């Protein structure tokens, strides 16, 4: 039961962060370690800025509705 | 055995829903509790989700749980990330829910709550959710590409460009109408204006904090921002009570318009981390929180609906917006029933993060049902007001005058009970000088929410706080949309102009950026100004134009869905998208036609222009114009609006032509011709982890 609550809490947290365009940092680190161990991994700070730029810096893409 | 129990369960559910409907239908003349609307809605949505979306998933689209998704194929930990379906649902819902589903149903309430409710329920089940789901599916099968790209590859290059062109004009009208809502809510309201203005320094502070003090601490910075926001609402009351400060923040609609235009320009050229991003955190979290709070309030308080099921205004003579039930109800309630804008989101970030194709049903269809539920709650909030108060707030000054006495007198003649005291008392309760002609939907929702939330927490003493909280919540995400939309529009414009003037395409050039931004701001600013000075309130002109443009995009997206179904050789099931396509097309084209050619000057732009032309010929000056030059301006505006409506019709008709051509070509072929990414097997762990 407790585990389920913790897991639900984690999903809520992940979802709230994703709502403003920031996916899981740990998933990114794991992915880089597994698939591109040769490439540098961005620090959380860099990762955060990169994501901010991607969400709002735009290229004409629309990330929200009316 | 368990399947029998499940069937009995669904049968019981269906009966509960039918009972709720019967209760609503048979209780005419008496007010009913909002809980009945909620029960009926939940039953309809649960049944639609369980059976209809299941049918679409397994028979029509045939979702394949073993098929590769873009999230695994291009996994980069950034844009393409396999994401749990509940997490992604939240993301998708936050992206599609905005001001649209809140405002449309409130304006539609002038015909009574029943027409709006019925269209919301049927529209979402058979059109809106189907569109969102199908576009999400189509994009997921094509590496998560955008709507413009999908149309290009499935229908051809020209229709792709036409769709992009149409999207740009939707952006302009959308930004204008959203900004108009803010202007109408804040005009002559020092409390509201102060609170909303305070969000700018708060966001700047947050931006610096999240950049340099505690980089990336989103939760922390949002909490700080939220506390400051609440303080600014409380502070607004003091501003209102101190005459010198109150005078500073008491602005007319025209002043606010110029401020907003300047704001739109400056905000969209500032670095994103400084203003846009932190404001987006606040507006997103506040939006989700308020929606949840409103849902809890409606369910637990179950306010009485005072608006009748139908009013006499179904004939099209209503003061809030003009035009008869068909086609204008279906234009007025766009978001919440079917919204073309969602097709841009369903082909945006969501398909890049879907873990398994089968999740598209929950995310695409499910999130749209949720949005429709939000729209139902907005309808409930508007219907809990005394109808007389509702009409006092939503009728333009040209019809009901500017004093409580004149408003009460006119509205009483329509048969709704109202006294001048009721109007002034409502204004006093929510801490405003006046509530007359606060058109645009936001103030109405705010009064409705204040009623519901104050019953839930704080009582009457808190009403003014909740009213300004609701205004702030709407203004906040509208300003975010204005800022982000101007940026998106600028890029679109640079892309379009770049085809003719190559130097405009350089998005790194400051000059090109500033020119494109200025053009974009001027575009929506033009429509905004025109709406603000309109004696009929502006909403009367702009909201139908926005509705038509949004439904036009829905038509375009549904034409794409239908074409793809034929290309997949699912002809047998193509009715699933043909029916909503036809309905959306019929409503949109009829509405656009009437907006241009109807003989009634309150509906038809050309008739309105002619009325002014005749007056000019006779040397008369009609409001809002104060001189012959301004009369010419009104006539010019009418022609611009008529041209825009005609443009939307042209886009839709040409897309229909391209769609029919594609379908005929697909039918002539003996094999499927849809251009999906080639089949690959999903990694085993993704298939197994699917439950």
From TrEMBL, chain A:
Protein origin, superkingdom: Bacteria
Pfam families hit by this protein: Sel_put (PF04328)
Name of the protein in its database record: Uncharacterized short protein YbdD, DUF466 family
From TrEMBL, chain B:
Membrane-topology descriptor: Multi-pass membrane protein
Cellular compartments per GO CC: plasma membrane
Keywords carried by this UniProt record: Cell membrane, Membrane, Transmembrane, Transmembrane helix, Transport
UniProt keyword Cell membrane present: yes
Protein name, UniProt field: Carbon starvation protein
Organism of provenance: Nitrosovibrio tenuis
CstA N-terminal domain location: 34-591
UniProt keyword Cell wall biogenesis/degradation, yes or no: no
Membrane-spanning parts: 7-26, 32-52, 93-113, 119-139, 160-183, 189-210, 217-238, 258-277, 284-301, 321-341, 362-385, 464-482, 510-529, 541-566, 573-593, 644-664
InterPro entries from the UniProt entry: CstA, CstA_N
Membership in a protein family: Belongs to the peptide transporter carbon starvation (CstA) (TC 2.A.114) family.
Compartments (UniProt record): Cell membrane
GO terms, biological process: cellular response to starvation
């Amino acid at each position: 039961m407790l585990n389920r609550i913790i897991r639900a809490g984690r999903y809520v947290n992940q979802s709230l962060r994703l709502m403003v365009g920031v996916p899981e940092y740990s998933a990114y680190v794991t992915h880089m370690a597994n698939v591109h161990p040769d490439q540098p991994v961005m620090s959380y700070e860099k990762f955060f800025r990169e994501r901010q730029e991607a969400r709002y810096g735009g290229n004409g893409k629309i990330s929200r509705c009316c | 055995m368990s399947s029998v129990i499940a069937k009995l369960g669904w049968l019981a559910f269906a009966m509960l829903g039918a009972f709720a409907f019967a209760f609503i239908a048979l209780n005419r003349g008496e007010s009913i509790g909002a809980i009945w609307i909620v029960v009926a809605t939940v039953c309809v949505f649960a049944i639609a989700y369980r059976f209809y979306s299941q049918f679409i998933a397994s028979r029509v689209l045939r979702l394949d749980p073993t098929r590769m998704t873009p999230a695994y194929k291009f996994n980069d930990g950034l844009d393409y990330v396999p994401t749990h379906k509940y997490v992604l649902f939240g993301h998708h819902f936050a992206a599609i829910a905005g001001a649209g589903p809140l405002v449309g149903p409130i304006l539609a309430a002038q015909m009574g709550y029943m027409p709006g409710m019925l269209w919301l329920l049927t529209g979402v089940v058979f059109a809106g959710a189907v569109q969102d789901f199908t576009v999400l599916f189509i994009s997921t099968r094509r590496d998560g590409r955008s709507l413009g790209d999908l149309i290009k590859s499935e229908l051809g290059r020209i229709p792709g460009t036409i769709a992009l062109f149409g999207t740009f004009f939707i952006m302009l009208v959308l930004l204008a109408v959203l900004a108009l809502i803010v202007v109408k809510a804040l005009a002559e309201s020092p409390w509201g204006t102060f609170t909303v203005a305070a969000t700018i320094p708060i966001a700047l502070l947050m931006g610096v904090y999240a950049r340099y003090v505690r980089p990336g601490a989103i939760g922390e910075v949002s909490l700080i921002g939220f506390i400051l926001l609440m303080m600014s609402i409380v502070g607004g009351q003091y501003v209102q009570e101190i005459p010198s400060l109150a005078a500073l923040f008491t602005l007319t609609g025209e002043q606010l318009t110029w401020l907003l235009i300047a704001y739109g320009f400056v905000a969209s050229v500032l670095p994103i981390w400084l203003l846009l991003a932190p404001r987006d955190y606040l507006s997103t979290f506040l939006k989700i929180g308020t929606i949840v709070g409103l849902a809890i309030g409606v369910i637990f308080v179950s306010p009485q609906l005072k608006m009748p099921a139908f009013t006499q205004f179904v004939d099209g003579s209503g003061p809030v917006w003009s035009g008869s039930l068909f086609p204008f109800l279906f234009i007025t309630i766009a978001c919440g029933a079917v919204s073309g804008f969602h097709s841009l989101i369903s082909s945006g970030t969501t398909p890049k993060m879907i873990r398994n194709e089968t999740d598209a049903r929950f995310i695409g269809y499910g999130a749209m049902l949720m949005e429709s539920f939000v729209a139902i709650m907005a309808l409930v909030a508007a219907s809990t007001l005394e109808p007389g108060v509702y009409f006092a707030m939503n009728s333009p000054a040209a019809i009901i005058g500017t004093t409580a006495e004149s408003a009460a007198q006119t509205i009483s003649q329509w048969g709704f009970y109202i006294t001048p005291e009721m109007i002034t008392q409502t204004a006093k309760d929510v801490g405003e000088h006046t509530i007359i002609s606060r058109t645009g939907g936001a103030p109405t929702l705010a009064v409705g929410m204040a009623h519901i939330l104050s019953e839930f927490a704080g009582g009457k003493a808190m009403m003014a706080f909740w009213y300004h909280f609701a205004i702030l919540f709407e203004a906040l995400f509208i300003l975010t949309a204005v800022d982000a939309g101007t940026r998106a529009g600028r890029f679109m414009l640079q892309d379009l102009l770049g085809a003719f003037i190559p130097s405009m395409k350089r998005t790194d050039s400051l000059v090109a950026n500033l020119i494109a931004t200025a053009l974009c701001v001027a575009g929506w600013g033009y429509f905004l100004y025109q709406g603000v000075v309109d004696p009929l309130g502006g909403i009367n002109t702009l909201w139908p134009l926005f509705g038509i443009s949004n439904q036009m995009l829905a038509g375009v997206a549904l034409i794409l869905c239908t074409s793809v179904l034929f290309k997949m050789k699912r002809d047998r099931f193509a009715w699933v998208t043909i029916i909503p396509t036809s309905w959306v097309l019929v409503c949109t084209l009829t509405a656009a036609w009437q907006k241009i050619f109807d003989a009634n000057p309150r509906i038809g732009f050309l008739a309105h222009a002619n009325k002014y032309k005749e007056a000019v010929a006779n040397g008369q000056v009609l409001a809002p114009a104060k001189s012959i030059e301004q009369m010419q301006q009104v006539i010019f505006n009418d022609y611009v609006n008529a041209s825009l409506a005609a443009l939307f019709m042209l886009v839709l008709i040409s897309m229909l032509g391209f769609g029919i051509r594609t379908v005929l070509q697909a039918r002539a072929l003996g094999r499927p011709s849809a251009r999906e990414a080639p089949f690959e097997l999903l990694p085993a762990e993704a298939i197994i982890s699917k439950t």
